[in-house]
Specification:
Keywords: Endonuclease, Hydrolase, Nuclease. InterPro entries: Homing_endonucl, LAGLIDADG_dom. This is Homing endonuclease. It holds the Pfam family LAGLIDADG_2. By secondary structure, the chain is of the alpha+beta class. 29% of the residues lie in helices and 28% in strands. A four-stranded antiparallel β-sheet has the order 5-6-8-7. The protein has a two-stranded antiparallel sheet with strand order 1-2. It has a two-stranded antiparallel sheet with strand order 3-4. Strand 5 and strand 6 form a beta hairpin. The longest helix has 15 residues.
Length: 154
């Protein structure tokens, strides 16, 4: 459970590995981790930036907030490996919010990403040719168990 070691830098109160059914009807399981995060009042202003009337949004000032460290944490949480690049699962955001994120990735890190429809939402695809830009920005902040997401296993 190497991935289970990546747990929000002290904001968790429980870590319980357990087998979860695969759902394929063959009775198999895969390792899963459950945890609880602490609710800290001091973090409420950050939550308020990303929720409007209970709906998840991308704040207009995201360009100022998306530092290399924040980008690394985002990848650890919502990033996905693809042989041809990388995905950022942004399904909970509107198309215009995802387009804003793509604009900020280009402005802040020189990453030319694309938007893709996924179910009823939108995700970000970063082609492999821009993974060197991703790695240059986030590598100092990535735990070793997450390096596969940025194609940086050493």
């Amino acid at each position: 459970m190497a991935k289970g070691r990546f747990l929000f830098w002290g904001f968790t109160t429980a870590f319980v590995p357990f087998p979860k059914p695969t759902g394929d009807g063959r009775g198999g399981t895969h390792p899963t981790v459950r945890f609880r995060t602490r609710r800290l009042e001091v973090l409420n202003p950050f939550r308020d930036l990303f929720y409007l009337d209970g709906v998840k949004i991308v704040p207009a000032i995201i360009g100022q907030l998306l530092t290399a460290r924040a980008f690394a944490y985002w990848i650890c949480d919502d990033g996905g490996y693809l042989a041809s690049g990388m995905l950022l699962h942004t399904n909970a955001f509107t198309k215009s919010d995802v387009e804003l994120l793509i604009f900020v990735l280009n402005t802040n890190f020189g990453i030319k990403a694309n938007i893709r429809a996924k179910g009823k939402g939108w995700i970000i695809y970063i082609p492999a040719q821009y993974l060197p830009n991703v790695r240059a920005a986030v590598l100092p902040y990535m735990p070793s168990s997450m390096l596969y997401k940025i194609h940086a296993l050493f």
